């Protein structure tokens, strides 16, 4: 079809409406920020960002249910897998922006703890969101990498926005250095794949990688897989690339810590699942002694399972020793990354439902927990766990909500986190991975100790003050939504799982367009 | 032994040598010069692969602007070259890991077997083909790159600027 506007106009660009919305809103924010008087409050910009994210979410919903749409020779595809991840990112970003409004405008903050550039803070949050949305729905290594870098660079800057704060500077620097090394590792891995297949399109790569394997390039394919996986494990903060997490989580402004632990991590999972399942699914060993078998399932994912197990062990045991609440949450998030890797490592046909269910539960409980952490640590001016002492007497609802979030993170019935873990646990049992299931149970029990440490502080330790804790409206809304979500998903987990299954047929991840 | 092989050998030696010297040299200026050698030799490798446009871009961007920018940065900042000696204990471990990795990759490359015929670009106009691809199939990454550059610019400004009220 020839049109007056050239070949580019023949694509259905409306499928990119969510991305365009975020891009336009981000641009608007930076322009309006420029035109606003210097000392006026930047709060309206955040509301603009929230409205834009809601609008983008509406566009994503419009895109769902139409099967797979590909544009630009399949380098960008809109499918249920990408859509469900985009909804998670958008929800996480809305929570982050709500928290940021309160974080940036709270009173009584020491000079060096302040973030000066409010407008840029909101702008960079949206560009990070744009990067993760690009990551979740592209099927071309170049587009994936550019999205990954947009997310990474925006987050490096956001981590360092408290620029007079020594810890924040240190954490931003560590984040940049380790992030660049991780990106280089990913690129190195992808370059091997490109060399073997001569294409960056994941679907063409899948076909040719199978041939390349049979032609005797097994070793290089293994090397490429592990390099790429190691580099990408930086984004989900799992072993072997987890060492940055505690320092960065501690030094970053609390809303950004929440963003990193939810949106950035979910984006990492979206990329890992799409990339490896799409590109490696047809690497089949036909010459094996016991019949043809998939190399991805039988060999590569075993190592992923081992790394997931190490993540759980390292995260949960090191969290026991922490006294800083944000550091503790960092180790907890390393352990959670280990749990979420289990469905990928065991690879049943329910992998997408299980991963997405856990990520939704994780989004709700983590965002709620970080909102409360932000309020409490901001009020007590310390990030020590003891800042939670006597919270039950100061703000009963907050303490009860926090209890539920922590129980959910620990995976105790009846909560969203319990069922997330339960489904994952079942999948590893079904696949006969008893050792992985055993490690999951054992490390979960270990994790009770530090989660209950906070609960003990809230109910049983006398605080330094009994004064009621004032909760700003925005934070109250986040806590309420997260609370209702965590409890609600915990009460009707099957309906949520069925809803995901019915509305987001995630298997079209590997289907061609138009089916 | 063809002339191409000799050229490849020299260029790759310079590339790797530049990178190694970049790490082991002590003075910052020397490091940048070593890095510039590495960049230029990579440009030479691109020429050998018949990717002239990429080679010229490599010279312009890396060897030209980035090295010069680094030298400017060094000249405009104070840096007292002092040796740090405390990293000897991990040296052996690092050596083992790097050596093992080298052996693995070397074996992988030795056993590499790519089917099909090599591509022939000699008859095509490099710049034209790159332009066509960049503005059709790769238009999304191209546009996202502009957002990425803007983000980097904004980030550099807000992290480095001096506030109006703390002179």
From TrEMBL, chain A:
**Pfam families annotated for this entry?**
Proton_antipo_M
Query: Which Enzyme Commission number(s) are on file for it?
Result: 7.1.1.-
Task: Tell me where in or outside the cell this protein is found.
Answer: Cell membrane; Membrane
Residues annotated as coiled-coil are: none
Tell me the enzyme class.
translocase
Q: Which regions span the lipid bilayer?
A: 20-37, 44-61, 81-103, 115-135, 141-160, 172-194, 214-234, 255-277, 297-318, 330-351, 357-376, 397-420, 432-452, 473-492
Catalytic reaction list: a quinone + NADH + 5 H(+)(in) = a quinol + NAD(+) + 4 H(+)(out)
Q: Which domain of life is it from?
A: Bacteria
* Domain (NADH:quinone oxidoreductase/Mrp antiporter transmembrane) ranges: 138-445
Identify the keywords attached in UniProt to this record, alphabetized: Cell membrane, Membrane, NAD, Quinone, Translocase, Transmembrane, Transmembrane helix, Transport
UniProt membrane topology term: Multi-pass membrane protein
Task: Kindly report the protein's main subcellular placement as a broad class.
Answer: membrane
Keyword NAD in record: yes
Give the family from UniProt.
Belongs to the complex I subunit 2 family.
Q: What is its quaternary makeup?
A: NDH-1 is composed of 14 different subunits. Subunits NuoA, H, J, K, L, M, N constitute the membrane sector of the complex.
Function summary: NDH-1 shuttles electrons from NADH, via FMN and iron-sulfur (Fe-S) centers, to quinones in the respiratory chain. The immediate electron acceptor for the enzyme in this species is believed to be a menaquinone. Couples the redox reaction to proton translocation (for every two electrons transferred, four hydrogen ions are translocated across the cytoplasmic membrane), and thus conserves the redox energy in a proton gradient.
What is the name of the protein in this document? NADH-quinone oxidoreductase subunit N
The protein's organism comes out as Ammoniphilus resinae
Organism classification = Bacteria, Bacillati, Bacillota, Bacilli, Bacillales
Which gene name does the record give?
nuoN
TrEMBL record, chain B:
User: Under which name does UniProt file this protein?
Assistant: NADH-quinone oxidoreductase subunit J
Q: Name one Pfam family in it.
A: Oxidored_q3
Q: Which InterPro entries match?
A: NADH_UbQ/plastoQ_OxRdtase_su6 (IPR001457), Nuo/plastoQ_OxRdtase_6_NuoJ (IPR042106)
Record's catalysed reaction(s):
a quinone + NADH + 5 H(+)(in) = a quinol + NAD(+) + 4 H(+)(out)
Q: Which domain of life is it from?
A: Bacteria
| Primary location class | membrane
Q: Where does the sequence pass through the membrane?
A: 6-25, 32-49, 55-78, 90-109, 138-160
Summarizing the function annotation, the protein's role is: NDH-1 shuttles electrons from NADH, via FMN and iron-sulfur (Fe-S) centers, to quinones in the respiratory chain. Couples the redox reaction to proton translocation (for every two electrons transferred, four hydrogen ions are translocated across the cytoplasmic membrane), and thus conserves the redox energy in a proton gradient.
**Which taxonomic lineage does the organism of this UniProt entry have?**
Bacteria, Bacillati, Bacillota, Bacilli, Bacillales
| Top-level EC class as recorded in UniProt | translocase
Species the sequence originates in: Ammoniphilus resinae
